[in-house]
């Protein structure tokens, strides 16, 4: 296994690092370049530097986990690794393959990916897209690195990363909003705000775990909870009405996908 260079060790970069180490990647095989001293991990055997310019050897894979607005400043200093054959794995939202390759050179081997925040508990899902210069073996190496924090899917059409971002990249925020909305509705019916929030959190978290473990589709799990003529059926009449939750989600994801395209500009 060659060296890994992790550029940026914020929340997502840190989650990836923890996932790699948990899966048996040796700390000595990872170099972390992070300018903020407080974010540099203290793992024994792990080398940390303030900037990639301090790294002399060529890593096998360079993982780009910096904020999108920092990418244009960071990439020129990494071109020497691309020239030496390193694969670049980006998790920066909105930064296209062409924009990254524009900094690293036409022959650069780049994989663009869109993870989501449940990666922090290794329950994330990531969708990735590879540039033409990336070999099957290099894709598999990137797949293994991303799989350390959850499921991994691949697309050949990079444009699909915009709806992916809208659905799964931004999706955790929608689920957290659902918890907020359920708790607020419960409080309006007379529950204390604290109890309503506890009930909403546990219900959504438990339902998510049931969904993860079950082989049944979400629609069937919904039916399993819904007794004809019962309380759930009454609520679903509202949520599944023509002006219910589906058109709201259609508009919301379309807006997020449109913004993703704008940011990639």
What does this structure look like?
This protein is an alpha/beta fold. 48% of the residues lie in helices and 14% in strands. It has eleven helices and eight strands. Strands 3-2-1-4-5-6-7-8 form an eight-stranded mixed beta sheet, sandwiched between helices. Helix 1 links the parallel strand 1 (4-7) and strand 2. Helix 6 (161-169) packs across helix 11 and helix 7 (171-188) crosses helix 8 (193-213). The radius of gyration is 21 Å and the shape is elongated. It starts with a strand and ends with a helix.
| Structural class label | alpha/beta
- What is the CA–CA distance across the termini? 36 Å
Rg = 21 Å
The count of strands amounts to 8
Topology record:
Layout: E1 4-7, H1 11-22, E2 30-33, E3 47-49, E4 61-64, H2 71-74, H3 79-83, E5 87-90, H4 97-104, E6 109-114, E7 124-130, H5 136-147, E8 150-154, H6 161-169, H7 171-188, H8 193-213, H9 218-225, H10 231-239, H11 245-264
Parallel strand pairs: 1-2, 1-4, 2-3, 4-5, 5-6, 7-8
Antiparallel strand pairs: 6-7
Helix pairs in contact: 6-11, 7-8
């Amino acid at each position: 296994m060659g060296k890994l260079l992790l550029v940026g060790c914020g929340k997502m970069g840190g989650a990836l690092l923890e996932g790699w180490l948990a899966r048996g990647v040796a700390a000595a095989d990872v170099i972390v370049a992070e300018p903020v001293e407080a974010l540099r991990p203290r793992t024994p055997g792990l080398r940390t530097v303030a900037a990639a310019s301090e790294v002399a050897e060529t890593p096998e894979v360079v993982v780009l986990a910096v904020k999108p607005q920092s990418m244009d400043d960071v990439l020129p200093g990494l071109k020497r690794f691309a020239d030496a054959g390193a694969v670049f794995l980006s998790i920066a939202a909105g930064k296209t393959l062409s924009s990254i390759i524009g900094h690293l050179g036409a022959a650069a081997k780049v994989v663009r990916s869109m993870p989501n925040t449940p990666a922090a508990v290794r329950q994330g899902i990531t969708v990735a897209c590879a540039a033409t210069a990336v070999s099957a073996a290099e894709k598999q190496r990137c797949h293994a690195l991303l799989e350390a924090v959850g499921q991994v899917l691949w697309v050949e059409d990079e444009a699909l990363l915009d709806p992916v971002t809208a659905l799964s990249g931004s999706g955790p925020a929608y689920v957290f909003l659902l918890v907020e909305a359920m708790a607020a509705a419960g409080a309006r019916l007379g529950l204390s705000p604290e109890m309503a929030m506890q009930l909403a959190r546990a219900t959504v978290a438990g339902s998510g775990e049931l969904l993860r473990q079950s082989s049944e589709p979400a629609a069937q799990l919904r039916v399993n909870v819904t007794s004809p003529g019962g309380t759930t059926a009454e609520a679903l009449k509202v949520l599944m009405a023509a002006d219910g939750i589906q058109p709201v989600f259609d508009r919301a994801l379309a807006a997020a996908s449109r913004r993703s395209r704008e940011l990639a500009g």
